[in-house]
Amino acid sequence: MDKTEFVDLLNDDSQKKTKQPSKRRLKRLTRLEKKPSFLGLLIGSYVSFSLITFLAIVLIFLLSNWLSRYESIDLSTAKLTEFDSYLKNEEYSKIPTVSIFGVDGWFEVVEEDGTSLYASSGVSREYTEGELSLIKPMGADETVSTQTLVNDLGENNYVVTRTYIKDGEKVSAFIVLDKDFHWISGDLGFEKTSFTQEEYEILSYQSEHQDQVFAKYEFEAQSGDTRYVVFLDTNDKVEFKFEYIIGITIFFALVIYGVIMAIYIQYVNRNVQRPLSAISIAMRRFAKDGYREQIQYSGPVEFEQLAGSFNEMVTLLNASEAEKNELEKRRQSMLAGLSHDLKTPITIIQGFSKAIRDGVVADADKKRYLDLIVSKSEQMGALINSFYEFSKLDHPDFVYNFERADVAEVVRSHIASIYGEFTIRKYTLETDITEEQLFANVDLSMMVRVIDNLVSNFFKYTPVGSTLFVEVKEENGFAKISFADNGKGIPKDSRKDIFEPFVVGEKSRNKQGSGLGLAVCQKIVRAFGGTITLSDAPKEGFVTQFDILLPLFDVDNTI
Predict the structure, then answer these.
(1) What is the domain extent for residue 41?
(2) Bridge-based pairing state of the strands 467-475 and 428-433
(3) Together in a domain, 126 and 256
(4) Of 343, 359, 392, at which residue does a domain stop?
(5) What is the pLDDT of residues 347-400, one digit of tens each?
(6) What is the pTM of this model?
(7) Residue 408 pLDDT
(8) Are 521 and 409 a contacting pair, CB within 8 Å?
């Protein structure tokens, strides 16, 4: 696209090309030759936006300051002791609850045994004598704090610390309770060593609501009975006109924000949108006609960079197309491998079956023929199962059930469960699995599948009497799982393709198996965020070693 065509794209009013550019076009062409910086446009808009925003903040501050004459009024000014006469005469409804205890505060009059006589909230609660004894007296210099800990069994223990005055001196005491709030150790200064859920909640209330006061006030009724006022002082305030201040502030803030946004949008639309149209046309042509040619563009530096990004996208799409073609070739190769591996057993099954059907097989040979048919059908079944397992890992509906697990324990447990198979098959198993917990994010069933595939390959591809060495340890923030054997090893020309599907025969160790086991392992381990590799430097005394690296989780040390 040459410069004249680009100017035509910017000119909304022009629909036809003319031989001589108009003055308006020449003016725009001159502006393009100067290559204005998009950064300059941003700086200008940012400065104007910041200035207007600052003025808006000042305006809102002044407005809020003007409205601040509507100060908050603390209603909690009265004292309970001023109303002893009401308490003595049982005129509880005359006591001004809000003035004494705050808007959300309440009080309740109870007898010595905890029986409720009056509740300001209208909801009465019966207190046991034990609960009533744990509520601190009004004005007492006493604090209680609680803390929940987790013991080694994963159960909650509760530590209650109490500071109070005894014989004129301040005393600090504590007690440790189990999950059922029974005594473990310590002395809290009460005669109780076991608490109910409700009693513990009374103890812990002040600790969890330090801005409130939950206490009791003892008084003598007209009848001579001792009674208590159990109350909650919330220390809250009523904010007069506060909603008006918030509403007006939000209103002006929205108005100013809307004005600033409108100005900014218009500014950006005038100075940015039009130059972008040239690149937009190229992108629309790409979407409509499938053009994958890079565009040549000259203009502001930032827009040239945008054009470069478009060209980079074209390059990536071309590479993606090539990768897609490569994946299709691999898929066809996999299908060809599967067809090839199924062809031989099917041919044998068909041939032997026809021979038996046509009666050309002697009775003495029929069992041997049938055994071969069964063997080949089992081989086909195993191959199809392996291919199904390999394919399902790529299916959109397949979901890994990830969980945080100790992979060292997973390997240890599973290897222990199949230990007897090594003895029966006359193989040797050696292990070196760390006692340290190595937590990783894995699917346990898929993790076991990886272990089984590697062990199965060991049995298939190493002679009887060989040794499998399994090691698990921490290495540089990863859980490293190694499987090493002292078998015949893998030829050098096969090592680079060992994780490819259907790599068997001369490309591997022998012609057993489907050639999908290691490919399945690689898919699973990659899904875990890890890697599986064939080591170039196996452990001393061994010739083949597979190493799995899984990223570790941080372990939270919870008491």
Answers:
(1) 36-72+239-269
(2) parallel
(3) no
(4) 392
(5) 778 777 887 887 777 877 778 778 778 877 766 776 676 666 666 666 667 788
(6) 0.39
(7) 94
(8) no
Residues 421 and 533 in one domain: yes
Whether 41 is covered by a domain: the verdict is yes
**Residue 474, beta-bridge partner list:** 479
Distance between CA atoms of residues 419 and 416, nearest Å: 5
Query: Is residue 27 a part of any domain in this protein?
Result: no
Radius of gyration of the chain (CA): 41
Q: Both tokens of residue 286?
A: 């790409």
Q: 171-207 pLDDT, tens per residue?
A: 888 888 888 888 888 888 777 778 888 888 888 887 7
What tokens were used for 499?
Answer: 């994780």
Q: Strands (DSSP E) along 316-418, which ranges? A: 403-406
Please, is 380 exposed, middle or buried when counting C-beta atoms within 10 Å of its C-beta (0-12, 13-18, 19+)?
Answer: middle
Stretch 141-169: mean pLDDT, rounded? 85
Count: domains in the chain: 4
Query: Measured between alpha carbons, how far is residue 489 from residues 58, 470, 496, 503 in Å?
Result: 78, 17, 14, 15
Q: With beta carbons less than 8 A apart as the criterion, state whether 405 and 437 touch.
A: no
123/222 same-domain check:
yes
- Judgement on whether residues 386 and 420 belong to the same structural domain of the protein: no
Same domain, 535 and 450: yes
